[in-house]
Write a structure and sequence with these properties.
By secondary structure, the protein is mainly β. It is built from no helices and eleven strands. It is globular.
Length: about 120
C-alpha cells in the first residue's frame, strides 16, 4: 500500500488549498482514511477522517472550514481547506487503516499506512 500526498503550498490567510492523497495497492473506498498534521514542536493531530461508508470526522479546530471527500474512480481522498489561518501551518499527512471496512478511527494509532507529508504554509 502506498499513499501519495500532494497539494501543499504557500497561501495567504483566508485562502484555500486542496490536498490529495492518491492510493495504490488497494481500493481506498474500502478503508478508512485520515488526514493528520504536525506543526513544529507540536504533536501530530488528526484533522479529518472518512470511513468506507463515508462517515466523516473533523477536529473542532477545522470544523466548518475543512472538508474531506473521496473520489472512488481516482482512488483518491481529498482535503479541501478553506478560510485558512496561520495556525493551520503544518506538514499534512494522509493515512489509511488496514482493516477492511473498519470503523472510522480517531488518532494516529488507528491508522497503519502513512504517506509522506506535504507542507502547508499560511502567511498572515
Amino acid at each position: 500500500v502506498q499513499l501519495q500526498a500532494s497539494g501543499g503550498g504557500l497561501v495567504e490567510a483566508g485562502g484555500s488549498l486542496r490536498l490529495s492523497c492518491a492510493a495504490s495497492g488497494r481500493t481506498v473506498s474500502n478503508y478508512a482514511t485520515g488526514w493528520f498534521r504536525q506543526a513544529p514542536g507540536k504533536e501530530r493531530e488528526q484533522v479529518a477522517g472518512i470511513s468506507a461508508g463515508r462517515s466523516t470526522y473533523y477536529a473542532d479546530s477545522v470544523k466548518g472550514r475543512f472538508t474531506i471527500s473521496r473520489d472512488n474512480a481516482k482512488n483518491t481522498v481529498y482535503l479541501q481547506m478553506n478560510s485558512l489561518k496561520s495556525e493551520d501551518t503544518a506538514v499534512y499527512y494522509c493515512a489509511a487503516d488496514a482493516t477492511y471496512r473498519g470503523r472510522l478511527g480517531v488518532g494516529a494509532r488507528e491508522y497503519d499506512f502513512w504517506g509522506q507529508g506535504t507542507l502547508v504554509t499560511v502567511s498572515s
